[in-house]
Amino acid sequence: MSRRLRTCLFLAAAVVLAAFYAAACTGLPHFAGLVHPYGTRAVAAAFRQRTANVISSINFDQRAFDTLGEESILFAAVLGAIVLLRRARDEREAAPAPGRVMPSTRLFGTVMLPITLLTGFYIVAHGQLSPGGGFQGGVILATGLHLAYIAADYRALERIRPLASLDVADALAAGAFAALGFVGIAKGAAYLQNVLPLGTFGQLSSGGLVPVINAAVGVEVGSGIVVLIAHFIDQAVEIESPSTQDGQRPDDASGADGGNR
Amino acid sequence: MPTQDLLPLAVAVPLLGAVLLVVAGRRLPRVAIDGLVTALAAADVADLALLWARTGDGRSVAWLGGWRPVHGEGVGIVMVGDRIGIGLALLTAVLILAVVGYSWRYFEQPPTEHPGTFPALILVFEAGMCGFALTGDLFNAFVFFELMGAVAYALTGFRIEDPRPLQGALTFGIVNSLAAYASLLGIGLLYARTGELGFAQIGQHLAHHRVDALLVAAFVLVLTGPLVKAAVAPFHFWLPDAHAVAPTPVCMLLSGVMVELGIYGIARIYWTVFSGPHGIPMACFRDTFVAFGALTAVVGAVMCWQQRHLKRMLAFSTVGHVGLFLIGVALVTPEGVAGTALYVAGHAGVKAALFAVTGVLLDRHGSVDEYGLYGRGRELRLGGVLFTVGGLALAGLPPFGTGLGKAVLEHAALSRFPWLLVVFVGVSALTAGAVLRAAARVFAGAGPRPRERYAGPETTGGGEEPEIRDPSRAVPPPMLAVPAVLLLGALAVGVLPGIGRQLALAARLFTDRAGYVAALYGPAPAPSGASPATGWTAEGVSLGLLSTLLALVVAALAVWGPAVPSGAVHRARETLSATGRRVVLPLRRLHSGHIGDYVSWLAVGLAVLLVVTAAQV
């Protein structure tokens, strides 16, 4: 198809889609209603489970099976990055040159790095009590580590980033979630059932299984994202590809039947 | 262990297995890794076989986390296994086991510094597919849909040294992700209206609302994901680009079960969510998707015939057959579902076997080009036999499972859409004809050496990288044993009467919406109505023989036609190919490999579906 035809076709279809979606939205419940059937039930259930953060109760207790799938997607993404961003046979590794950093940036990074890590730990640890949790805290932990890249250079990041152990930690934490589900089965209840003592509402130890799964997710997300970013940065910083010199564009070789390139 | 615990176990076992492989893989030799992954795959087969046996002609229901509904209201996720869902998960697990056996020790699995990553991805893929087949919750189905997608993109692009797999994986990833966003929008609409996420629960609440734009939009949007996954035209463009470039073991899984899971998703979601009162009328669903199915089947078959790249040929054959499967479930009868289930089971074995033999060719000769391989498969006698038998089974030769499924579907379609007989026979004959044509040329060197005829750009399939460590030595035994066993499995589906009978009962249960809803809250009453007949009939056998004969005729015409001295045959052939070119060339040009084109077609397909559905409700 020519560019023009493709654009016209898409725009014509997009107009129809937009019209239908707009019409569909008129059938939605009104804004700022006082009740939502699921919301009301989920809040009540979270209180019964003595989990102050309702979102965490939904993520790690009421609909924990969804979260198991989601964190498996992250696990799969990390494995996929390991596979796709590996060093190809015709690529070679080069040591990145040290970068020049402004003293103020270096100072700011040195101060902020431990503070960010501490914040990350706090957000993970209090996932069952206050907004946040394993996913959010894990991302903060991973981001914090990369302040070393901004404030110093890649070699500094490599020094404080134990990639091999993080790789294993990511896998073990992903496995821990699936394995924790068996606690319920072992106690004669259902898979992923919250059978641990629920504790006192509002305490750090409350929520039964929720803080445990939450911690596993925190470790998985934190280490998984570091590994994921590491493979992307390696690709950009360390690995030199020969094909960039050949001037070969990847789409020259796409599998296709017709085409008018 | 209680039966309902087997449901989440089917997902948890491969997930834990993948973790084990990633952690332990670095310290284990290749043999140990392969032994471990084989044991894990076998464990999941055992779990699902036990579930199949224990569930019987009923449903197994598991409330995850013990969140059973109180007074009909709940917050949790439910898994519901009936024999269609469990059977599909079991088929997945068996195919995973076959793939693991096929790649045993020989198939090259980079990255070398992370051994165990490839089998780990295969196991996560299994978890995603089993979860999708067994869940009873719309959002949960979406999560598993995404999980199998994320793994499939990585597995498709596995051979990074070649730009083609990366392009294929990118196309696959972008088109499927856009479809997933559409599905999520649809789920959002349904959730906002009903406050429910379970299939049955949404369906129950929709009965209290009138039919309006929201219902139509949600119906089309939710089905977009499964439609793209199932590669229904015009959402099919990504499939040949991805299946042609993925490693052979991955192709076996993609074509064998993943695409079929899309069909399952369409049928399951329609029956449980939208088929109730104030839903989408059955006539609307039937007419719309029979038409889409027929279009898909014809496009797939015509494009399949045009290919010389063997993997692309098999991929387009999958598109053709998926069209037939869609017709099957769109008939909205138990007979249609039973026929589709049989057809899918048989097709999975046949198609995986054909891909497996193609993988052997790739490793011997570094090519999957029908022209380039002319006569070069002669020394691979067993491979040639398997490929030919696979082609005949694809045509629906009795007593293969493909033949039985096709026969049951033809019978199911006959009363309302008699013209579908032509589609069923023609599509099976043409796709199988292409495979038989290639078999005759590659493995027997039959007919004159094929000439380059097609003027436009095309994918030849030459210059591919072998996938095993040392292609110069003898063919590894599992690479031919696995396709042989798979073909025997496809034969068993057609020969063993027990399978057909059980799937007939399962189809009656699958189409019993009230029973599905009731099963969530307690023992459901047995479905009323007779279960469909799924045995061989004289009519079915003769139609199977007819399509096989036609396949042989078209293959023979293509192979030996050019050798016939000029005369009536030659002239007829020339006119036929001239008219063919006028129709086929534009169709080939549509498969441009350009992601922008594919996205435009996705949008157009959605717009058409929306308008057509709105016009019929």
TrEMBL record, chain A:
It comes from the Bacteria. Residues 240-261 are annotated as: Disordered. Its main location: membrane. Residues 48-98 form the MrpA C-terminal/MbhE domain. Residues 1-24 form the signal peptide. It holds the Pfam family MbhE. The chain crosses the membrane at residues 68-86, 107-127, 133-152, 172-192, 212-233. Keywords: Cell membrane, Membrane, Signal, Transmembrane, Transmembrane helix. It is found in: Cell membrane. InterPro entries: CPA3_antiporter_subunitB, MnhB, MrpA_C/MbhE. It is a multi-pass membrane protein. Residues 107-226 form the Na+/H+ antiporter MnhB subunit-related protein domain. This is Sodium:proton antiporter.
